[in-house]
Amino acid sequence: MARDRQLDPVGRVEELRAALRHHNELYYQKDAPEIPDSEYDAMLRELIQIENDHPDLLTPDSPSQTVGSSATTTFAPVEHRIPMMSLDNAFDEEELQAWVGRVHKGVGNATDIKVVAELKIDGLAVSIRYEKGKLVQAATRGDGRVGEDVTANVKTISVIPSSLKNAPEVLEVRGEVYMPISAFHALNAIEQEAGRKTFANPRNTAAGSLRQKNAAVTAERQLSFWSYQLGEIVGGPELTTQHQVFDYLRSLGFPVNPASVVLDHVDDIITHSESWQQQRHSLDYEIDGVVFKVDELSLQQQLGSTARAPRWAIAYKFPPEERTTKLLAIEVSIGRTGRATPYARLEPVVVAGSTVEFATLHNEDQVEAKDVRVGDTVIVRKAGDVIPEVVGPVLSERPKGLRKWKFPANCPDCGQKLFRPENEVDHRCLNTSCPARVSGTIEHFASRGAMDIEGLGEQRVKLFCQEGLLRDVGDIYSLDPEKLVKFDKLGDLSVRNLLESIEKSKSRPLANVLVGLNIRHVGGTVAATLASSFGHLDNLEIATEEQVSAIEGIGPIIAASVVEWFSQEENRSVVQKLRAAGVNFAGPEKSDAPQTLAGMSIVVTGALEGFTRDEIESLIVAHGGKSPSSVSKKTTALVVGGDERSSKRTKAEELGIPILSEQDLLKVIETGTL
Ligand code: IVH
């Protein structure tokens, strides 16, 4: 990697920018990040480093120069009259010192520079506008220039005043909306009770709660707010320092974090950072660092800003937390596919604000590579501050005589032999009636990506299986309300809701039914292809391997797996139960557009001008074509958006597959000929 980077900074810059844009969208628009902040920060730092080394590569739209992510179309756009900037980060003492150095240099005198220290609240920034003392508008940060109108949602946050006494003509108050940790746990307890999926962490829950179409949902979520900055202000008092801003905000009735303090010497920021790193979990809200701002507003002016962030402020970001604890046992859990996953049972330890007792160890090879042994002291951290992970053993603390861990020979749930196929990393339990597999399969059938049966989560499925009410997914549709009410906690209302969502699930699209059946290798894309190609589950049920593998996008392994699944007696009985219950088996309606692309398989890569990826794929399918995600011998043509040089293009060129532009494709759709 490092070599490639030196050889090809252009390629690496492109790669980093694409990844950062993708993760920006996940974080800011979908409230569902896939990587830890620390990983994101590392990519951003690498990008900035390369751009510093190669200034000619710097472009104004690089993620190093922009803030957040552009607004979605769900909310009306709000243009910020004064941009909402981001903060530069420092990750260690050296980087903090470097900032101190830049500040000294920038203000050009040797006198002590006062700074305010604040907590870096892990929430989302909003700007709230008051005109003549009335709250008239609230907006998210968005890309810093244009945010989203969340006025109705912000009005439901009780600590934010809706009107102000003695207010200036115009006042914009900026700060962080967050969810207290206690409110987050209370909300998750309710979600769990109702059998719904729980939320991952307070930050994403706060962002998701604020950005609700229906503000009544926001109102239920117990959001809170800390104010820390002013935006536009017309007719207000003369303020000369950042700490006067806090006093002013407080006097108007805004919550100002009590930990915001003035430090007399800019050099004090190191000890201040360390002290908060120690105490970060003493609070009822999450912080991910400490923010320092030069106190004198005139000095702030003098230091100015880059396109992205002020030079007068810096955020010290805490490193991901690691803790050590005892490894009590290594156990194995069996998933719905029979996959046996080893996991660590740990002496409970608090990591990044919550207690960790279990952590996955993935598979036999991972345990071997980490060489963790029962009885070891191990290092634990949270990946993405969410998923606990065992980093490795502390070898200096290993007691004498600890033995290497051996993968158990038998399934912990049904006792049958576990099997590790050659060339695979996972062990499997092959017994399809293994209780762990059965409840896992039912849970999967009811999950969001499949039949989305609200109220039928892990706990209830396990309970119903234990009580003999459920033996397979077919039994869901004949659950007896009288038996259900007998369970504690399952009142009439809850039973009625459950039955209602079961009823609703009967009309889910065929692709969802196929996903729910838990056929190996059949995920969302394959299921959608099968549903549209076969048109009905009855056709798929009797299809031969040749017929299934003849379909574009379906290889021989998938075809074999599908046919084998339908050949099993117990699976056919499940299908029969679903059929009898009236579950939808019909595939998507064929479109009445001319079937000009019938028999063609068209792969799309790169960004198109006139269509999103989903739009172009739907258009191809509506005209009778297929649009799988990868190029193969069966591909008719590859459509390339922009001047994309992708691996798909290389592969298409190797296979001699025609390459089309967006315009070419539109012609093919019209004429039906390449
Ligand atoms: S000041 C021009 N102060 O951190 C200065 N930001 O990484 C703008 N944040 O977008 C921000 N706590 O969402 C400031 N005490 C604090 C903060 C804070 C959290 C967030 C804010 C900002 C992000 C930048």
- What small molecules accompany the polymer chains? 2-(butylsulfanyl)adenosine
Label the structural class.
Answer: alpha+beta
**Mean pLDDT over the residues:** 89
Radius of gyration: 29 Å
**Overall 3D geometry?**
globular
From the N-terminal CA to the C-terminal CA, the straight-line distance is 40 Å
Tell me the strand percentage band: 15-25%
Question: Helical residue percent?
Answer: 25-40%
**Main beta sheet strand tally, sense and closure:** 7 strands, antiparallel
Low-confidence stretches: 1-6
Q: Specify the number of helices.
A: 25
Count of DSSP strands: 21
Describe what this molecule looks like in 3D:
With about 675 residues, the protein is an alpha+beta fold. The strands form five sheets. Strands 12, 13, 14, 15, 16, 17 and 18 form a seven-stranded antiparallel sheet that branches. It has a five-stranded mixed sheet with strand order 2-11-10-3-9. A four-stranded antiparallel sheet has the order 5-4-7-8. A hairpin with a 2-residue loop joins strand 13 (about 340-350) and strand 14 (about 355-360). The model is unreliable at about 1-5 (pLDDT under 50). Bound molecules: 2-(butylsulfanyl)adenosine. 2-(butylsulfanyl)adenosine (IVH) binds near residues 86, 125, 176, 229 and 313.
